[in-house]
Specification:
Blueprint: E1 2-5, E2 8-11, H1 16-21, E3 28-32, E4 35-40, E5 45-50, E6 56-61, E7 65-71, E8 74-79, E9 83-86, E10 89-92
Antiparallel strand pairs: 1-2, 3-4, 4-5, 5-6, 7-8, 8-9, 9-10
Amino acid sequence: MFALKNETLTPLKAPPSLWAQLKGYIGSVEVSEGMIVATSPRAHWLGWFAEHNFELNDQFLLPDVCALAATSQGLFAGSGTGRVYNQGDVIPSKIRWDNHFSVT
């Protein structure tokens, strides 16, 4: 994954093994509160990169996570298993979320 800064593509910094673990697929990317957040449903992965230096800050394994949306209540992530995640809370849902949320 790359970030565009001053018209230059800069790779996000993570261990080389992570890119293979993600199986060549990033489902969603969202920038929120100084973080670049990405998901990979194939790897059941959500990662936070610091926007100022592009380093991997934290990562979580969440089953089939993909959808992302930044709202005034924080960042939400949705999964194909019907779960919505918000800052440590897990909200069960009967909807199986695909790659995208739309916030209105």
